[in-house]
Write a structure and sequence with these properties.
By secondary structure, this protein is α+β, with helices and mostly antiparallel strands. Helices cover 36% and strands 24% of the residues.
């Protein structure tokens, strides 16, 4: 879309959640049935179809919006006739946008296959997760997998690449198997993160960094060793109704410098306890008022759901975040993981 079209449509972006207006050409035209109300207006110049304006959202029911859309369409047609907007460039821009959208949609599907939402079956434990990128592709990643070691401990990984978009997604795709392999081979989570950090610093030299939390859960005893490289501290939800505790302790992010000095913390999950891990997309979620979701609201939400399973906690928290920032463009990827002992 040209700068001229963007400037014409920009005022409509000031009503988030109520009205969105976009330009579609024949290649980008959507034929899917939508639940909400919509208005369309074809753009034609000298009998040539160039595309259409599409308005969606509750506000399209207002008469003024219909009149405004008609006025905008007429203005675009006159600009094309006067040479202010090149018709060929308009179609080419829309075609390019369609190609990029298709590539991003494919990348989203491929990334979903990397970020597995199905945890393994671990007798005596309840595992749950939620993942929603802010853009087509994201920089968060997590993994729950059984380690090939004596006792078959559970590996737990949650991480967040600084930055957003394609660069963050590429670093995520590189780092995820590195951490996985390191945790399989290392004596513990801290050593796994030290090995990962060395590879990132020595081989990639990227301007992006990664916050990561890695845990190894001994299934028989419920004891989990945790190493935290600049990530949000996990929350321990005790079954006895006691206060939800933040598991502190950690070091700097991955990829900044080497060597990486990380302590290792131990947490013991008693029967009925839950451990909740998350990325800062949860606490940094923004409402239409500009208010942050915040840690206090997150803990209060978890507290209300603590009588349920790990799945119940993840479902309640993800729904609370989605409802809180409804109508707003997400500011960051949202990832939630919960581990509960029966």
């Amino acid at each position: 879309m040209t700068d001229a079209i963007e400037s014409i449509l920009r005022p409509f972006a000031r009503v988030p959640g109520e009205l969105t207006v976009r330009f579609e050409d024949a290649a980008t035209r959507s034929t899917a049935a939508l639940d909400g109300p919509r208005l369309t207006r074809d753009i034609q110049v000298d009998g040539r179809y160039l595309g259409r304006l599409v308005a969606e959202g509750p506000a399209v029911r207002e008469r003024a919006i219909s009149a405004a859309l008609e006025a905008v369409a007429i203005g675009i047609e006159r600009l094309v006739q006067a040479g202010g907007i090149d018709a060929g460039a308009l179609s080419a821009a829309a075609d390019a946008r369609s190609g990029i959208a298709a590539e991003l949609a494919l990348s989203r599907l491929q990334q979903r296959s990397l970020v597995s939402l199905e945890p393994p079956e671990v007798p005596g434990y309840d595992l749950a997760s939620y993942y929603e990128p802010a853009r087509e592709i994201g920089g968060d990643f997590f993994e729950l997998f059984v380690l090939r070691r004596r006792g078959r401990p559970l590996g737990v990984v949650i991480a967040d690449v600084t930055g957003k978009g394609i660069a963050a997604a590429l670093l995520m795709a590189f780092a995820r198997p590195v951490i996985h392999t390191a945790l399989q081979a290392a004596n513990g989570p801290a050593e796994a993160l030290r090995r990962t950090n060395r590879i990132l610093v020595d081989e990639l030299r990227t301007a992006l960094f990664i916050t990561a939390l890695v845990g190894r859960l001994e299934v028989r005893t419920g004891r989990m060793s945790i190493a935290n490289a600049g990530h949000e501290p996990p929350l321990l939800v005790p079954s006895d109704g006691g206060p939800i505790v933040s598991v502190e302790g950690g070091g700097r992010m991955l990829g900044m410098s080497s060597p990486l000095d990380l302590p290792e913390t131990e947490v013991e999950l008693a029967p009925g306890d839950r451990l909740v891990l998350y990325t800062d997309g949860v606490t940094d979620a923004i409402a239409s008022t500009g208010e942050r979701f915040g840690k206090d609201r997150m803990i209060a939400t978890i507290d209300r759901a603590r009588g349920g399973s790990a799945h119940d906690i993840v479902r309640e928290l993800s729904a609370a975040v989605s409802g809180f920032c409804e109508g707003m463009i997400p500011v960051d990827d949202v990832t939630i993981v919960a581990v509960g002992r029966h």
